[in-house]
Design goal:
The chain is an all-alpha fold and about 150 residues long. About 60% of the residues lie in helices and about 0% in strands. It folds into two domains: about 90 residues, Helicase, Ruva Protein, domain 3 (Orthogonal Bundle), CATH 1.10.8; about 50 residues. The chain has six helices and no strands.
Length: about 150
C-alpha cells in the first residue's frame, strides 16, 4: 500500500507545481491562467511549461499571468505582455511568421537541397562508370599477343 501511494505521489508531482497560494478564487480565471501557463516555457527548465515547473522563475511567471488576468487582460494581451518582457523564447510554440519563418523553412529547404545534390552526385558517378573507355591500338595489339601465347 505504501508503495502504491509513493508511485501515485511521484506521478502527480507536476500537478503540485502550482502552489495553493497561487490559485485564484475565480475558477474561470484560474482555468484561463492554467491554460496560458501550459503555453509558456520555464526559462530555467527549458522544455517544461511554467505550469509543470517548480522553479522560482516559473512561479513568478505564473503569478504574473494571474496578475494580468485579474487586471482584465485578455489571453492574448497577457501572453503579449510576457513575451514583451522575456522575449519570444518564453513561448513553447514559437510563432510561425516574421523572422521565425526563416527558421521554420530552413529545415525542409536544406533537406530538399541535400537530396537534390545527392541525386546529382549519384547521377554523375553513374554516367562516369557507364562510359566505356576504349583501348589504344598498342594496348589492343598487346592483348592479342598475350591471347596468342
Amino acid at each position: 500500500m505504501k508503495r502504491m501511494i509513493l508511485i501515485l505521489s511521484l506521478l502527480c508531482a507536476p500537478a503540485w507545481a502550482v502552489q495553493p497560494d497561487e490559485v485564484l478564487d475565480d475558477p474561470v480565471l484560474e482555468d484561463r491562467a492554467r491554460e496560458l501557463s501550459k503555453e509558456l516555457r520555464c526559462l530555467v527548465c527549458r522544455n517544461e511549461s511554467i505550469d509543470d515547473s517548480n522553479a522560482d522563475l516559473a512561479r513568478d511567471l505564473r503569478l504574473l499571468v494571474r496578475e494580468r488576468l485579474v487586471a482584465g487582460d485578455s489571453d492574448a494581451e497577457a501572453i503579449a505582455f510576457i513575451v514583451d518582457r522575456y522575449g519570444e523564447y518564453v513561448l513553447l510554440k514559437p510563432q510561425r511568421g516574421g523572422s521565425n519563418l526563416l527558421l521554420w523553412l530552413a529545415g525542409p529547404v536544406m533537406l530538399i537541397l541535400g537530396g537534390g545534390l545527392a541525386a546529382l552526385y549519384l547521377r554523375r558517378t553513374a554516367v562516369k562508370s557507364d562510359a566505356v573507355v576504349g583501348l589504344s591500338e598498342e594496348e589492343q595489339a598487346r592483348i592479342e599477343e598475350i591471347m596468342k601465347e
